[in-house]
Here is the input.
Amino acid sequence: MTEAASTGAAESRTAATRDPGAGAGDAPEAADAANERVDRWFARRPALALAALLPIGAVTPLFPVEVGVATFALGTLAVGMAHGAVDHLVPLRADPSVSLRRSIAVVSVVYAVLGGAVVAAFFAAPVAAFVGFIALTWLHWGQGDVAALAIAGVDHLPTSAERWLALVVRGGLPMGVPLLAHPEEYRLVAEWIVGLFLVDAGAAAAAVDPLFAPGVRVGVGVGMAAATLASVGLGYRRVRSGRDAGGWRRDVGELAVLWAWFLLAAPVFAVGVYFALWHALRHVGRLVLVDPEAASAASAGDAVGALARFGRDAAPLTLGGFLVVGAVGVSVPAGVAAPGDLLAVSLVAIAAMTLPHVAVVTWLDRRQAVWRPDAGR
Here is the structure.
């Protein structure tokens, strides 16, 4: 690594976490230690675990879809629901000028208004709401990966445009590639979700027909391949001009694992594992860094202490999330009578919580200058 590249990587990491980094102590060394350990615990090791699971993922298309439903439920129960359950404390911890009362009040209103709007949208126009949920998840999961790369101090995405392209690629892998590789199961899930809000069970299949036309699949596949090649190519050009090659190699390696995972594994199983093992854990790591006590534990190498602190804070609203699932389940017109219905209800409830969650995370992104990587240089 050149001296300029080393300095750029360090500055990128500092810009991305400069406010929450103070939670690891006043010394920059403590903040850097917290960042490095969080990156290793919540991003690098889970990525290696997903790579190790590829042989299992490759055979899941041979299993009944109920296996994927059970996996999704387990992942959601274990960590998926919890990863957004500390949103009410994010403004407090990321901005010292925000009081606890204001933090909780503002986030509560955001969740009530935006979450309610999502549920209303599903009742009013279920197909459009389903498409909106896919697009929102595409955005959010790409957003989460770009933030994780920023925490890791990668040096090959120095502009907002390059980070937005990385977002398109990272979010599109779990949302777009399964449509290309396993359209039948993808369509089944769409029918389950839309069918919750249609009295005529047969109407769901007709309603989602346009979403699974061959042209849509081809367009998504070509778009994803082109975006991936463009992102990798631009990163390589940055490396050739003196940027750190280590972050680029990591980016390429993670992209290869994700492409293989979503091409090979059955969609429900693939998304269930990814949600818990990849996306949710990376966000948990980010929240550890904005909590001064958890960040101090991470700086000292105390993973159990950092997770215990997060778990304590997340427990009440994790339960609240499951109550939202129950509320959606008792309100849908078609009722819940099969494992597929349970998955569909869970996804609608997750959609209702995702939009306000994205609002909170977007605020945190702005606070940490994730999309302005040159800020403060």
